[in-house]
Amino acid sequence: MDQNPAIRVRGLQKSFQQLHVLTGVDFDVARGSVFALLGSNGAGKTTVVRILSTLLRPDDGTATVNGCDVVAQPARVRESISLTGQFAAVDEILTGRENLIMVARLRRVPDPRRVADDLLAQFGLADAGARRVATYSGGMRRRLDIAMSFIGDPPVIFLDEPTTGLDPEARLEVWKMIRDLAGGGTTILLTTQHLEEAEKLADRIAILHRGTIIASGTLAELRELLPPARVEYVETQPTLEEIFLATVGGGEAQR
Amino acid sequence: MTTHAFNDTNVMLGRSLKHVTRSVDTIITVTIMPIAFLLLFRYVFGGAIEANTDNYVNYLMPGVLLIAIASGISYTGFRLFNDMQNGIFERFHSMPITRSSVLWGHVLTSLVANAISVAVIVGVGLIIGFRTSAGVLAWLAVAGILALFTLALTWIAVLAGLSASTPDGASAFSYPIVFLPFVSSAFVPTETMPGPVRAFAENQPVTSIVDSTRALLDGQPVGSDVWLALGWCAGIGIVAYVFAVLAYRRKVR
Ligand SMILES: Nc1ncnc2c1ncn2[C@@H]1O[C@H](COP(=O)(O)OP(=O)(O)OP(=O)(O)O)[C@@H](O)[C@H]1O
Ligand SMILES: [Mg+2]
Predict the structure, then answer these.
(1) Residue B251 pLDDT
(2) CB contact under 8 A, B96 and A105
Protein backbone atom coordinates (compact mmCIF):
# COMPACT_ATOMS: atom_id res chain seq x y z
CA MET A 1 0.00 0.00 0.00
CA ASP A 2 0.93 3.61 -0.43
CA GLN A 3 3.15 4.68 2.46
CA ASN A 4 2.17 8.32 2.19
CA PRO A 5 -1.41 8.62 0.99
CA ALA A 6 -3.09 12.00 0.55
CA ILE A 7 -5.96 10.89 2.76
CA ARG A 8 -5.85 8.16 5.39
CA VAL A 9 -8.90 7.22 7.40
CA ARG A 10 -8.80 4.61 10.16
CA GLY A 11 -11.62 3.38 12.38
CA LEU A 12 -13.63 6.54 11.94
CA GLN A 13 -16.75 6.69 14.09
CA LYS A 14 -19.49 9.28 14.39
CA SER A 15 -22.90 9.21 16.02
CA PHE A 16 -25.63 11.81 16.23
CA GLN A 17 -27.36 11.04 19.53
CA GLN A 18 -28.71 7.48 19.08
CA LEU A 19 -27.92 7.36 15.39
CA HIS A 20 -24.62 5.56 14.69
CA VAL A 21 -23.78 6.94 11.27
CA LEU A 22 -20.16 5.81 10.99
CA THR A 23 -19.16 2.72 12.94
CA GLY A 24 -15.60 2.20 11.71
CA VAL A 25 -14.61 3.58 8.34
CA ASP A 26 -11.19 2.81 6.83
CA PHE A 27 -9.77 3.88 3.52
CA ASP A 28 -6.74 5.44 1.86
CA VAL A 29 -6.66 7.79 -1.08
CA ALA A 30 -3.43 7.82 -3.09
CA ARG A 31 -1.95 11.14 -4.15
CA GLY A 32 -3.17 12.40 -7.49
CA SER A 33 -5.98 9.89 -7.68
CA VAL A 34 -9.75 10.21 -7.86
CA PHE A 35 -11.57 8.35 -5.13
CA ALA A 36 -15.33 7.88 -5.21
CA LEU A 37 -17.40 7.27 -2.11
CA LEU A 38 -20.70 5.62 -2.92
CA GLY A 39 -23.64 5.07 -0.63
CA SER A 40 -27.39 5.29 -0.37
CA ASN A 41 -29.10 8.39 1.01
CA GLY A 42 -28.18 8.78 4.65
CA ALA A 43 -25.24 6.35 4.43
CA GLY A 44 -22.90 8.97 5.89
CA LYS A 45 -20.98 10.22 2.84
CA THR A 46 -21.47 13.87 3.73
CA THR A 47 -20.53 13.10 7.33
CA VAL A 48 -17.19 11.64 6.15
CA VAL A 49 -16.54 14.68 3.96
CA ARG A 50 -17.39 17.08 6.80
CA ILE A 51 -15.01 15.30 9.16
CA LEU A 52 -12.22 15.35 6.56
CA SER A 53 -12.74 19.05 5.89
CA THR A 54 -12.52 19.85 9.65
CA LEU A 55 -16.16 20.92 9.96
CA LEU A 56 -17.13 18.05 12.24
CA ARG A 57 -15.23 16.21 14.96
CA PRO A 58 -15.19 12.41 14.79
CA ASP A 59 -16.13 10.49 17.96
CA ASP A 60 -13.34 8.00 17.44
CA GLY A 61 -10.74 6.93 14.91
CA THR A 62 -8.23 9.02 13.01
CA ALA A 63 -8.17 10.84 9.73
CA THR A 64 -5.18 12.55 8.14
CA VAL A 65 -5.21 14.76 5.10
CA ASN A 66 -1.92 15.56 3.39
CA GLY A 67 -0.14 14.16 6.46
CA CYS A 68 -2.00 16.33 8.99
CA ASP A 69 -4.49 15.06 11.55
CA VAL A 70 -7.93 16.61 11.10
CA VAL A 71 -8.53 16.88 14.85
CA ALA A 72 -5.06 17.84 16.08
CA GLN A 73 -4.02 20.13 13.19
CA PRO A 74 -7.21 21.45 11.61
CA ALA A 75 -5.58 24.70 10.49
CA ARG A 76 -2.85 22.79 8.61
CA VAL A 77 -5.49 20.57 7.00
CA ARG A 78 -7.45 23.63 5.82
CA GLU A 79 -4.34 24.88 4.07
CA SER A 80 -4.27 21.85 1.81
CA ILE A 81 -7.95 21.32 1.06
CA SER A 82 -10.90 22.81 -0.69
CA LEU A 83 -14.51 21.80 -0.24
CA THR A 84 -17.52 21.82 -2.49
CA GLY A 85 -20.30 20.80 -0.14
CA GLN A 86 -23.46 18.98 -1.12
CA PHE A 87 -25.44 22.22 -1.22
CA ALA A 88 -24.17 25.24 -3.11
CA ALA A 89 -22.12 27.49 -0.83
CA VAL A 90 -22.23 30.76 -2.73
CA ASP A 91 -23.12 34.30 -1.76
CA GLU A 92 -26.46 35.08 -3.43
CA ILE A 93 -26.18 38.84 -3.10
CA LEU A 94 -22.75 39.10 -4.73
CA THR A 95 -22.22 38.52 -8.43
CA GLY A 96 -20.55 35.35 -9.65
CA ARG A 97 -17.39 37.28 -10.33
CA GLU A 98 -17.40 38.85 -6.87
CA ASN A 99 -17.83 35.43 -5.29
CA LEU A 100 -14.73 34.15 -7.08
CA ILE A 101 -12.70 37.28 -6.26
CA MET A 102 -13.71 36.97 -2.61
CA VAL A 103 -12.42 33.40 -2.37
CA ALA A 104 -9.28 34.28 -4.34
CA ARG A 105 -8.52 37.13 -1.92
CA LEU A 106 -9.17 34.91 1.09
CA ARG A 107 -6.78 32.35 -0.39
CA ARG A 108 -4.34 35.17 -1.09
CA VAL A 109 -3.69 34.17 -4.69
CA PRO A 110 -2.06 36.78 -6.88
CA ASP A 111 -4.28 38.72 -9.29
CA PRO A 112 -7.74 37.66 -7.99
CA ARG A 113 -9.53 39.42 -10.86
CA ARG A 114 -7.76 37.48 -13.55
CA VAL A 115 -8.28 34.21 -11.67
CA ALA A 116 -12.00 35.02 -11.47
CA ASP A 117 -12.30 35.85 -15.16
CA ASP A 118 -10.41 32.71 -16.19
CA LEU A 119 -12.66 30.51 -14.07
CA LEU A 120 -15.83 32.20 -15.32
CA ALA A 121 -14.75 31.46 -18.88
CA GLN A 122 -13.73 27.91 -18.03
CA PHE A 123 -17.08 27.16 -16.38
CA GLY A 124 -19.22 28.77 -19.05
CA LEU A 125 -20.27 31.63 -16.80
CA ALA A 126 -18.52 34.51 -18.54
CA ASP A 127 -21.81 36.10 -19.61
CA ALA A 128 -23.39 35.70 -16.18
CA GLY A 129 -20.34 36.85 -14.23
CA ALA A 130 -21.64 40.34 -13.60
CA ARG A 131 -25.08 39.16 -12.46
CA ARG A 132 -26.09 38.49 -8.89
CA VAL A 133 -25.99 34.82 -8.02
CA ALA A 134 -29.60 35.04 -6.80
CA THR A 135 -30.58 35.19 -10.48
CA TYR A 136 -28.61 32.03 -11.41
CA SER A 137 -30.18 28.69 -12.26
CA GLY A 138 -29.38 25.71 -10.04
CA GLY A 139 -26.82 24.38 -12.50
CA MET A 140 -25.08 27.75 -12.83
CA ARG A 141 -24.87 28.02 -9.08
CA ARG A 142 -23.36 24.57 -8.88
CA ARG A 143 -20.75 25.40 -11.51
CA LEU A 144 -19.82 28.58 -9.68
CA ASP A 145 -19.60 26.59 -6.47
CA ILE A 146 -17.17 24.11 -8.03
CA ALA A 147 -15.18 26.92 -9.62
CA MET A 148 -14.75 28.51 -6.17
CA SER A 149 -13.16 25.28 -4.94
CA PHE A 150 -10.59 25.26 -7.73
CA ILE A 151 -9.06 28.56 -6.64
CA GLY A 152 -5.60 28.44 -5.16
CA ASP A 153 -4.75 24.95 -6.47
CA PRO A 154 -5.22 23.06 -3.18
CA PRO A 155 -3.58 19.60 -3.28
CA VAL A 156 -6.76 17.87 -2.02
CA ILE A 157 -10.31 18.63 -3.17
CA PHE A 158 -13.53 17.26 -1.69
CA LEU A 159 -16.56 17.26 -3.95
CA ASP A 160 -19.81 16.17 -2.31
CA GLU A 161 -22.14 15.14 -5.14
CA PRO A 162 -20.54 17.64 -7.52
CA THR A 163 -22.75 17.00 -10.53
CA THR A 164 -26.16 16.68 -8.87
CA GLY A 165 -28.50 19.05 -10.67
CA LEU A 166 -26.29 19.53 -13.71
CA ASP A 167 -27.50 18.79 -17.22
CA PRO A 168 -25.66 16.04 -19.14
CA GLU A 169 -23.52 18.53 -21.03
CA ALA A 170 -22.42 20.42 -17.93
CA ARG A 171 -21.81 17.12 -16.19
CA LEU A 172 -19.43 16.03 -18.96
CA GLU A 173 -17.65 19.39 -18.67
CA VAL A 174 -17.21 18.97 -14.93
CA TRP A 175 -15.99 15.42 -15.38
CA LYS A 176 -13.38 16.64 -17.79
CA MET A 177 -12.22 19.30 -15.35
CA ILE A 178 -11.99 16.75 -12.55
CA ARG A 179 -9.92 14.47 -14.79
CA ASP A 180 -7.66 17.38 -15.75
CA LEU A 181 -7.17 18.31 -12.11
CA ALA A 182 -6.29 14.73 -11.20
CA GLY A 183 -3.94 14.60 -14.18
CA GLY A 184 -2.20 17.63 -12.73
CA GLY A 185 -1.59 15.84 -9.44
CA THR A 186 -4.57 16.99 -7.38
CA THR A 187 -6.14 14.36 -5.14
CA ILE A 188 -9.92 14.26 -5.41
CA LEU A 189 -12.42 12.61 -3.12
CA LEU A 190 -15.92 12.76 -4.48
CA THR A 191 -19.20 11.33 -3.36
CA THR A 192 -21.88 10.53 -5.83
CA GLN A 193 -25.26 8.93 -6.31
CA HIS A 194 -24.50 8.74 -9.96
CA LEU A 195 -22.79 5.41 -10.44
CA GLU A 196 -21.77 6.08 -13.99
CA GLU A 197 -19.83 9.05 -12.61
CA ALA A 198 -17.79 6.81 -10.32
CA GLU A 199 -17.24 4.36 -13.16
CA LYS A 200 -16.01 7.06 -15.51
CA LEU A 201 -13.93 9.12 -13.12
CA ALA A 202 -12.67 7.18 -10.17
CA ASP A 203 -9.40 5.30 -9.87
CA ARG A 204 -10.78 3.61 -6.78
CA ILE A 205 -14.31 3.26 -5.47
CA ALA A 206 -15.55 2.53 -1.96
CA ILE A 207 -19.09 1.64 -1.00
CA LEU A 208 -20.22 3.00 2.35
CA HIS A 209 -23.06 1.06 3.90
CA ARG A 210 -24.32 0.70 7.45
CA GLY A 211 -21.47 2.72 8.85
CA THR A 212 -18.55 0.93 7.21
CA ILE A 213 -16.89 0.44 3.86
CA ILE A 214 -18.35 -2.84 2.65
CA ALA A 215 -16.44 -2.99 -0.60
CA SER A 216 -13.62 -1.03 -2.14
CA GLY A 217 -11.14 -1.28 -4.96
CA THR A 218 -10.79 -0.45 -8.61
CA LEU A 219 -13.78 -0.99 -10.84
CA ALA A 220 -12.19 -4.22 -12.08
CA GLU A 221 -11.69 -5.45 -8.52
CA LEU A 222 -15.27 -4.65 -7.64
CA ARG A 223 -16.48 -6.54 -10.71
CA GLU A 224 -14.82 -9.65 -9.35
CA LEU A 225 -17.11 -9.47 -6.36
CA LEU A 226 -19.93 -10.63 -8.57
CA PRO A 227 -20.19 -14.29 -9.51
CA PRO A 228 -18.40 -14.70 -12.87
CA ALA A 229 -21.16 -16.97 -14.19
CA ARG A 230 -23.43 -13.97 -14.27
CA VAL A 231 -20.92 -12.02 -16.28
CA GLU A 232 -20.79 -14.77 -18.89
CA TYR A 233 -24.54 -15.17 -18.97
CA VAL A 234 -25.29 -11.56 -19.87
CA GLU A 235 -22.17 -11.49 -22.03
CA THR A 236 -21.30 -8.03 -20.78
CA GLN A 237 -19.38 -6.51 -17.93
CA PRO A 238 -21.61 -5.72 -14.98
CA THR A 239 -22.07 -2.03 -14.51
CA LEU A 240 -21.17 -0.46 -11.27
CA GLU A 241 -24.87 -0.04 -10.67
CA GLU A 242 -25.30 -3.80 -10.60
CA ILE A 243 -22.33 -4.24 -8.34
CA PHE A 244 -23.68 -1.54 -6.06
CA LEU A 245 -27.12 -3.06 -5.85
CA ALA A 246 -25.72 -6.57 -5.39
CA THR A 247 -23.45 -5.58 -2.52
CA VAL A 248 -25.90 -3.24 -0.84
CA GLY A 249 -29.05 -5.21 -1.65
CA GLY A 250 -28.27 -8.08 0.74
CA GLY A 251 -28.49 -5.87 3.78
CA GLU A 252 -31.44 -3.87 2.52
CA ALA A 253 -33.87 -6.78 2.99
CA GLN A 254 -33.31 -6.79 6.77
CA ARG A 255 -34.41 -3.17 7.23
CA MET B 1 -0.86 35.81 11.20
CA THR B 2 -2.01 39.34 12.06
CA THR B 3 -1.66 40.44 8.45
CA HIS B 4 -3.83 37.45 7.49
CA ALA B 5 -6.41 38.47 10.09
CA PHE B 6 -6.40 41.98 8.65
CA ASN B 7 -6.73 40.77 5.05
CA ASP B 8 -9.48 38.27 5.91
CA THR B 9 -11.47 40.76 7.99
CA ASN B 10 -11.14 43.27 5.19
CA VAL B 11 -12.53 40.80 2.64
CA MET B 12 -15.39 39.86 4.98
CA LEU B 13 -16.15 43.52 5.62
CA GLY B 14 -16.26 44.21 1.89
CA ARG B 15 -18.65 41.33 1.34
CA SER B 16 -20.95 42.31 4.17
CA LEU B 17 -20.96 45.99 3.16
CA LYS B 18 -22.15 44.95 -0.29
CA HIS B 19 -25.05 43.21 1.42
CA VAL B 20 -25.93 46.53 3.06
CA THR B 21 -25.50 48.74 0.02
CA ARG B 22 -27.51 46.29 -2.12
CA SER B 23 -30.45 46.37 0.23
CA VAL B 24 -30.77 50.09 0.76
CA ASP B 25 -34.27 49.40 2.07
CA THR B 26 -32.69 48.14 5.30
CA ILE B 27 -31.16 51.58 5.90
CA ILE B 28 -34.51 53.21 5.14
CA THR B 29 -36.31 50.79 7.46
CA VAL B 30 -33.79 51.49 10.21
CA THR B 31 -34.00 55.29 9.91
CA ILE B 32 -37.71 55.70 9.22
CA MET B 33 -38.90 54.84 12.73
CA PRO B 34 -36.45 57.10 14.59
CA ILE B 35 -37.29 59.91 12.16
CA ALA B 36 -40.98 59.32 12.84
CA PHE B 37 -40.27 59.58 16.59
CA LEU B 38 -38.31 62.74 16.00
CA LEU B 39 -41.22 64.33 14.14
CA LEU B 40 -43.82 62.97 16.56
CA PHE B 41 -42.09 64.31 19.65
CA ARG B 42 -41.14 67.57 17.99
CA TYR B 43 -44.53 68.47 16.49
CA VAL B 44 -47.12 66.41 18.44
CA PHE B 45 -46.01 65.73 22.01
CA GLY B 46 -43.32 68.38 22.27
CA GLY B 47 -45.68 71.22 23.07
CA ALA B 48 -47.02 69.39 26.11
CA ILE B 49 -43.70 68.09 27.42
CA GLU B 50 -42.02 70.22 30.04
CA ALA B 51 -38.33 69.44 29.58
CA ASN B 52 -36.87 72.73 30.80
CA THR B 53 -35.24 73.40 27.47
CA ASP B 54 -35.59 76.06 24.82
CA ASN B 55 -34.86 73.62 21.99
CA TYR B 56 -36.69 70.32 22.40
CA VAL B 57 -35.15 68.87 19.19
CA ASN B 58 -31.75 69.20 20.82
CA TYR B 59 -33.14 67.43 23.86
CA LEU B 60 -34.58 64.57 21.75
CA MET B 61 -31.64 63.95 19.49
CA PRO B 62 -29.48 61.63 21.65
CA GLY B 63 -32.38 59.31 22.52
CA VAL B 64 -33.54 59.11 18.92
CA LEU B 65 -30.02 58.23 17.78
CA LEU B 66 -29.85 55.44 20.36
CA ILE B 67 -33.19 54.07 19.13
CA ALA B 68 -31.84 54.08 15.59
CA ILE B 69 -28.74 52.16 16.64
CA ALA B 70 -30.73 49.68 18.73
CA SER B 71 -32.96 48.84 15.77
CA GLY B 72 -30.06 48.93 13.31
CA ILE B 73 -28.11 46.17 15.04
CA SER B 74 -30.98 43.71 14.61
CA TYR B 75 -29.95 43.46 10.95
CA THR B 76 -26.55 42.21 12.03
CA GLY B 77 -28.21 39.35 13.90
CA PHE B 78 -30.36 38.68 10.86
CA ARG B 79 -27.47 38.68 8.38
CA LEU B 80 -25.35 36.44 10.59
CA PHE B 81 -28.25 34.03 10.99
CA ASN B 82 -28.69 33.89 7.21
CA ASP B 83 -25.00 33.22 6.72
CA MET B 84 -25.19 30.24 9.02
CA GLN B 85 -28.20 28.81 7.19
CA ASN B 86 -26.35 29.18 3.92
CA GLY B 87 -23.49 26.86 3.02
CA ILE B 88 -21.16 29.84 2.64
CA PHE B 89 -20.31 29.65 6.35
CA GLU B 90 -19.08 26.08 5.97
CA ARG B 91 -17.04 27.09 2.99
CA PHE B 92 -15.35 29.84 5.02
CA HIS B 93 -14.75 27.43 7.89
CA SER B 94 -13.09 24.89 5.64
CA MET B 95 -10.72 27.56 4.30
CA PRO B 96 -7.36 28.62 5.74
CA ILE B 97 -8.62 31.93 7.10
CA THR B 98 -8.64 33.59 10.50
CA ARG B 99 -11.97 32.38 11.85
CA SER B 100 -12.73 35.46 13.91
CA SER B 101 -12.72 37.49 10.69
CA VAL B 102 -16.11 35.95 9.86
CA LEU B 103 -17.62 37.68 12.92
CA TRP B 104 -15.56 40.87 12.74
CA GLY B 105 -16.69 41.44 9.16
CA HIS B 106 -20.27 41.63 10.41
CA VAL B 107 -19.36 43.74 13.44
CA LEU B 108 -17.46 46.37 11.43
CA THR B 109 -20.29 46.45 8.88
CA SER B 110 -22.67 47.21 11.75
CA LEU B 111 -20.50 50.17 12.75
CA VAL B 112 -20.51 51.55 9.21
CA ALA B 113 -24.23 50.97 8.60
CA ASN B 114 -25.20 52.57 11.92
CA ALA B 115 -22.92 55.53 11.28
CA ILE B 116 -24.83 56.08 8.03
CA SER B 117 -28.22 55.94 9.79
CA VAL B 118 -26.98 58.32 12.49
CA ALA B 119 -25.80 60.78 9.83
CA VAL B 120 -29.16 60.61 8.03
CA ILE B 121 -31.07 61.27 11.26
CA VAL B 122 -28.82 64.14 12.29
CA GLY B 123 -29.45 65.59 8.81
CA VAL B 124 -33.23 65.39 9.29
CA GLY B 125 -32.76 66.86 12.79
CA LEU B 126 -30.92 69.87 11.35
CA ILE B 127 -33.84 70.50 9.00
CA ILE B 128 -36.37 70.60 11.84
CA GLY B 129 -34.34 72.75 14.17
CA PHE B 130 -31.53 70.74 15.75
CA ARG B 131 -28.70 73.15 16.59
CA THR B 132 -25.42 72.38 18.29
CA SER B 133 -22.59 74.42 19.68
CA ALA B 134 -20.33 71.38 19.93
CA GLY B 135 -16.77 71.80 18.69
CA VAL B 136 -14.69 69.20 16.88
CA LEU B 137 -13.54 67.55 20.10
CA ALA B 138 -17.07 67.29 21.46
CA TRP B 139 -18.28 65.80 18.16
CA LEU B 140 -15.45 63.28 18.27
CA ALA B 141 -16.44 62.38 21.82
CA VAL B 142 -20.08 61.93 20.74
CA ALA B 143 -18.97 59.77 17.81
CA GLY B 144 -16.82 57.72 20.17
CA ILE B 145 -19.65 57.13 22.64
CA LEU B 146 -22.10 56.19 19.89
CA ALA B 147 -19.53 53.89 18.26
CA LEU B 148 -18.88 52.15 21.57
CA PHE B 149 -22.63 51.82 22.14
CA THR B 150 -23.02 50.34 18.65
CA LEU B 151 -20.14 47.95 19.24
CA ALA B 152 -21.57 46.74 22.55
CA LEU B 153 -25.05 46.17 21.11
CA THR B 154 -23.62 44.57 17.97
CA TRP B 155 -21.98 41.85 20.05
CA ILE B 156 -25.39 41.18 21.60
CA ALA B 157 -26.72 40.96 18.05
CA VAL B 158 -23.94 38.50 17.13
CA LEU B 159 -24.84 36.37 20.13
CA ALA B 160 -28.51 36.43 19.11
CA GLY B 161 -27.72 35.66 15.47
CA LEU B 162 -25.56 32.69 16.49
CA SER B 163 -28.03 31.26 19.01
CA ALA B 164 -31.38 31.90 17.32
CA SER B 165 -33.28 29.10 15.64
CA THR B 166 -35.43 31.34 13.43
CA PRO B 167 -34.70 34.55 11.50
CA ASP B 168 -37.29 36.35 13.65
CA GLY B 169 -35.52 35.22 16.79
CA ALA B 170 -32.27 36.56 15.37
CA SER B 171 -33.72 40.08 15.24
CA ALA B 172 -36.47 40.13 17.89
CA PHE B 173 -33.95 40.49 20.74
CA SER B 174 -33.53 44.15 19.83
CA TYR B 175 -37.14 45.16 20.61
CA PRO B 176 -36.57 45.54 24.37
CA ILE B 177 -33.39 47.51 23.68
CA VAL B 178 -35.28 49.82 21.32
CA PHE B 179 -37.69 50.60 24.16
CA LEU B 180 -35.06 51.31 26.81
CA PRO B 181 -34.69 54.98 25.76
CA PHE B 182 -38.40 55.56 26.51
CA VAL B 183 -37.80 54.69 30.16
CA SER B 184 -34.83 57.01 30.48
CA SER B 185 -34.03 60.69 30.35
CA ALA B 186 -34.24 60.58 26.53
CA PHE B 187 -37.65 62.26 26.09
CA VAL B 188 -38.66 63.62 29.48
CA PRO B 189 -36.67 64.43 32.62
CA THR B 190 -36.63 61.46 35.00
CA GLU B 191 -37.84 63.68 37.89
CA THR B 192 -41.35 63.55 36.42
CA MET B 193 -41.57 59.73 36.76
CA PRO B 194 -43.10 57.83 39.73
CA GLY B 195 -40.67 56.28 42.29
CA PRO B 196 -39.76 52.79 41.04
CA VAL B 197 -39.85 53.83 37.36
CA ARG B 198 -37.66 56.79 38.15
CA ALA B 199 -35.22 54.56 40.03
CA PHE B 200 -34.99 52.26 37.03
CA ALA B 201 -34.71 55.12 34.56
CA GLU B 202 -31.94 56.85 36.45
CA ASN B 203 -29.84 53.73 36.85
CA GLN B 204 -30.11 52.10 33.46
CA PRO B 205 -27.34 52.57 30.88
CA VAL B 206 -29.30 54.69 28.39
CA THR B 207 -29.75 57.62 30.79
CA SER B 208 -26.04 58.15 31.33
CA ILE B 209 -25.36 57.81 27.60
CA VAL B 210 -28.16 60.24 26.74
CA ASP B 211 -27.14 62.77 29.42
CA SER B 212 -23.47 62.82 28.45
CA THR B 213 -24.21 62.97 24.70
CA ARG B 214 -26.72 65.77 25.24
CA ALA B 215 -24.25 67.76 27.34
CA LEU B 216 -21.51 67.33 24.71
CA LEU B 217 -23.82 68.47 21.90
CA ASP B 218 -24.95 71.47 23.96
CA GLY B 219 -21.40 72.48 24.75
CA GLN B 220 -21.97 71.86 28.47
CA PRO B 221 -19.54 70.19 30.87
CA VAL B 222 -20.23 66.43 30.90
CA GLY B 223 -19.13 65.61 34.44
CA SER B 224 -18.94 62.01 35.62
CA ASP B 225 -21.83 60.88 33.40
CA VAL B 226 -19.49 60.25 30.53
CA TRP B 227 -17.42 57.77 32.52
CA LEU B 228 -20.55 55.98 33.63
CA ALA B 229 -21.72 55.86 30.00
CA LEU B 230 -18.38 54.52 28.77
CA GLY B 231 -18.34 52.02 31.63
CA TRP B 232 -21.79 50.69 30.72
CA CYS B 233 -20.86 50.35 27.02
CA ALA B 234 -17.55 48.67 27.77
CA GLY B 235 -19.10 46.34 30.35
CA ILE B 236 -22.02 45.28 28.15
CA GLY B 237 -19.71 44.95 25.17
CA ILE B 238 -17.18 42.74 26.94
CA VAL B 239 -19.79 40.43 28.44
CA ALA B 240 -21.64 40.10 25.11
CA TYR B 241 -18.34 39.55 23.27
CA VAL B 242 -17.30 36.72 25.60
CA PHE B 243 -20.66 34.97 25.27
CA ALA B 244 -20.73 35.52 21.49
CA VAL B 245 -17.27 34.00 21.07
CA LEU B 246 -18.26 31.03 23.25
CA ALA B 247 -21.43 30.54 21.18
CA TYR B 248 -19.34 30.72 18.02
CA ARG B 249 -16.86 28.14 19.29
CA ARG B 250 -19.75 25.81 20.12
CA LYS B 251 -21.20 26.33 16.68
CA VAL B 252 -18.06 25.66 14.68
CA ARG B 253 -17.17 22.41 16.52
N1 LIG C 1 -25.98 17.37 12.34
C2 LIG C 1 -26.69 16.23 12.35
N3 LIG C 1 -27.51 15.96 13.38
C4 LIG C 1 -28.24 14.82 13.40
N5 LIG C 1 -28.19 13.87 12.45
C6 LIG C 1 -27.38 14.08 11.40
C7 LIG C 1 -26.59 15.27 11.29
N8 LIG C 1 -25.88 15.22 10.15
C9 LIG C 1 -26.23 14.05 9.57
N10 LIG C 1 -27.13 13.36 10.32
C11 LIG C 1 -27.69 12.04 9.99
O12 LIG C 1 -26.64 11.20 9.67
C13 LIG C 1 -27.00 10.32 8.61
C14 LIG C 1 -25.96 10.42 7.50
O15 LIG C 1 -26.07 11.71 6.90
P16 LIG C 1 -25.17 12.14 5.68
O17 LIG C 1 -25.59 13.50 5.33
O18 LIG C 1 -23.75 11.91 6.01
O19 LIG C 1 -25.65 11.11 4.56
P20 LIG C 1 -25.26 11.08 3.03
O21 LIG C 1 -24.65 9.75 2.77
O22 LIG C 1 -24.48 12.26 2.64
O23 LIG C 1 -26.71 11.12 2.38
P24 LIG C 1 -27.21 11.82 1.00
O25 LIG C 1 -26.86 10.89 -0.10
O26 LIG C 1 -28.70 11.89 1.19
O27 LIG C 1 -26.56 13.14 0.92
C28 LIG C 1 -28.41 10.72 8.20
O29 LIG C 1 -29.31 9.81 8.79
C30 LIG C 1 -28.57 12.09 8.78
O31 LIG C 1 -29.92 12.30 9.15
MG1 LIG D 1 -24.78 13.84 1.49
Answers:
(1) 81
(2) no
Could you report the per-residue pLDDT of A59-72, keeping only the tens digit for each?
A: 999 999 999 999 99
Residues of A in contact with B22 (CB under 8 A): 93, 132
Find the range with the poorest average confidence among A87-91, A251-255, B191-195: A251-255
Which one is predicted more confidently, A2 or A121? A121
* Residue A1, pLDDT above cutoff 80: no
**Considering only CB atoms, which chain B residues are within 8 Å of A87?**
87
Q: How far is B17 from chain A (nearest CA, A)?
A: 11
- Per-residue pLDDT tens digits for B137-151: 889 999 999 999 999
CB of B191 within 8 Å of a chain A CB? The answer is: no
Per the structure, the count of domains in chain B is 1
Identify the residue among A57, A91, A98 best suited for mutation to test binding to B, counting B beta carbons within 10 A and taking the highest: A91
Domains and CATH numbers, chain A: 7-254 (3.40.50.300)
**Ligand 1 neighbourhood includes A164 CB (under 6 angstroms):** no
Reported ipTM: the value is 0.85
The parent domain of residue B141 ranges over 3-252
What parts of chain B have a pLDDT lower than 50?
none
A66: which residues sit within 8 A by CB, 6+ positions away? A6, A7, A76, A77, A80, A81, A155, A156
Q: Whose C-alpha lies nearest to ligand 1, atom 2?
A: A16
Give the Cα separation of B15 and B9 in Å (integer): 10
Window 20-59 of B, Cβ < 8 Å to A:
22-23
